[in-house]
């Protein structure tokens, strides 16, 4: 956010994140009867460690490994020319052919839906999945496109002037979700 200092409020602790991911992992297993054709694909940046954590939880209680991929949407964003952005591209790593598979796309925060639309375009370039589902840690509302998550860790009603920041140990050194507001 431009301008002055920000007021920060923790809305999910490390334990809250752990519980939310465990619940989402159980729901994924319930809604996907065969793990044989399931692939988790995390959106860069924080969706990747979230997808890995979900896969680990599924392995812990099902005893089965689920492939995990990483998806970069930098070239698929619809605001590149509008904002005159030069996206910093990171590798996309899809560990298996996704054609005919059930793919769970994983992201940290669902906001307007534009990043998810870009991710769907990027994903389809790798094959035609049988089914695509969406798992997010936080759904903050304010959709601009008709996109909804199949699995949500927490719904957090926000105003447009607030910002949700997800911090994960793998990237930020600690697990928490905070709301930032201008003071």
Give the helices and strands, then pairings.
Elements: E1 6-12, H1 14-31, E2 38-43, H2 47-62, E3 68-71, H3 80-83, E4 102-110, H4 114-124, E5 131-139, E6 151-155, E7 163-167, H5 169-172, E8 176-182
Parallel strand pairs: 2-3, 2-4, 4-5, 5-6
Antiparallel strand pairs: 1-8, 7-8
Question: How would you sum up this structure, described in words?
Answer:
The protein is an alpha/beta fold and 183 residues long. The protein has a domain at 31-157: Rossmann fold, CATH 3.40.50. 29% of the residues lie in helices and 28% in strands. It contains five helices and eight strands; from the N terminus they run βαβαβαβαβββαβ. The chain has helices spanning 14-31, 47-62, 80-83, 114-124, 169-172; strands at residues 6-12, 38-43, 68-71, 102-110, 131-139, 151-155, 163-167, 176-182. The strands form two sheets. A five-stranded parallel beta sheet has the order 3-2-4-5-6. Strands 1-8-7 form a three-stranded antiparallel beta sheet. Helix 1 packs across helix 2. The radius of gyration is 16 Å and the shape is globular. The model has no long low-confidence stretch (mean pLDDT 92).
């Amino acid at each position: 956010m431009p301008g002055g200092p920000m007021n920060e409020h923790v809305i999910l602790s490390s334990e809250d994140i752990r519980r939310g991911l465990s619940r989402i992992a159980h729901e994924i297993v319930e809604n996907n009867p065969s793990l044989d054709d399931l692939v988790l694909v995390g959106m860069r940046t924080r969706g990747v460690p979230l997808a890995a954590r979900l896969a680990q939880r599924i392995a812990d209680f099902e005893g089965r490994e689920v492939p995990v991929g990483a998806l970069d949407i930098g070239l698929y964003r619809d605001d590149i020319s509008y904002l005159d952005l030069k996206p910093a591209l990171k590798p996309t790593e899809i560990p298996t052919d996704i054609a005919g598979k059930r793919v769970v796309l994983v992201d940290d925060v669902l906001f307007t839906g534009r990043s998810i639309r870009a991710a769907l375009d990027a994903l389809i370039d790798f094959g035609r999945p049988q089914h695509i589902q969406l798992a997010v840690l936080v759904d903050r509302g304010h959709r601009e496109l008709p996109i909804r998550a199949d699995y949500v860790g927490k719904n957090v009603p926000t105003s447009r002037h607030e910002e949700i920041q997800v911090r994960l140990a793998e990237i930020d050194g600690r697990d928490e979700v905070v709301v930032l507001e201008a003071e």
